[in-house]
Amino acid sequence: MKFLDIFFTVFHTCLVLFNLFGWIWKKTRLANLITLLVTAGSWSILGIFYGFGYCPLTDWHFNILEKLGYTNLPDSYLSFLFTRLTGLPIDQSLVDTVTLWGLIIALTISLYLNIRRCIKARRKQSADQSD
């Protein structure tokens, strides 16, 4: 069980960082857009059934943590991670707001860069065909 806790901590944290910053590198922009859309879909579509912001990774990880004896887990993974790393509690509404804005900003940038890439590719393809 401890291995699964470590796995989910590393994997989930890397996914959050990739969602926020994966648009920076040209080679990861499409994958970043996909993970952002999956995340937004989970939060909104699965959120209809489980509550807005639902994340299966958080659910699975928290189930493991409960089996390891953790109690009074917060509503979000990022709240848990902050407290785990610092030992300090954090206001849940602050975490929710920053998390949502992080997703909105990253998704907006990722969409813009991916659409721009597609437009450039189409223009190049049209120019190549007309030659």
Description of the molecule:
The protein is mostly helical. The protein has one domain (2-130). The protein is built from five helices and no strands. Helix 1 packs across helix 2 (29-50), helix 1 packs antiparallel against helix 3 (56-67) and helix 2 crosses helix 5. The model has no long low-confidence stretch (mean pLDDT 94).
Summarize the structure.
With 131 residues, this protein is an all-alpha fold. It has five helices and no strands.
Shape: elongated
Sheet-strand content, in percent, reads: under 5%
**Biggest sheet details:** none
Query: What is the number of helices?
Result: 5
- Which ranges are low-confidence, i.e. pLDDT below 50, for 5 or more consecutive residues? none
User: What is the number of E strands?
Assistant: 0
